[in-house]
What does this fold into?
Amino acid sequence: MTRPVSSGKSAECEVSFTVNGELRTTHAFPMERLLDTLRNRLGLTGAKEGCGEGECGSCSVLLNGALVNSCLVPVLQAQAAEIVTIEGLAAGAQLDHLQEAFLKCGGAQCGICTPGMILAAHHLLHRKPDPTLEQIREGLSGNLCRCTGYIQIVEAVAEAARRRATT
Ligand code: FES
Ligand code: FES
It folds into this structure.
């Protein structure tokens, strides 16, 4: 149930959703971007702001299993949703296969695109555990990188798929 906590046209509301398996409740302006709520109110700074216009994918998170640009999602749209951010992939100090593969293959340079790339790849491998290189490129097509030229990123996702198949 959403209820205003102060009067006036910009009153904040209470919002609750599950983030990385944990129920979180916070206050936010109804049209506040989910990206800002995650970063500024919940301290989850893994999702990055690149373009702020839905073009680069740096702010990607999973919302009820769908890959979304959190800079385009009003926080109230996430009420009662299940959200996964990059912080939710590692198990403590144990990195996810994708995170290890990005490290090994040099898939991260400045790192701005990396959380979104890894979440997009995670989403892809969930649907296609053994993707072709073309399917990897297609799966990452909504995520832009200005540093790597994409070759190392595609190699990293292929490497992660191989590791998943053997563990
Ligand atoms: S910051 Fe959201 S798509 Fe670029
Ligand atoms: S590593 Fe810099 S934008 Fe991708």
The CA atoms of residues 147 and 159 lie 20 Å apart. The beta strands are 13-19, 22-28, 60-63, 66-69, 82-84. The radius of gyration is 17 Å. The longest helix spans residues 151-166.
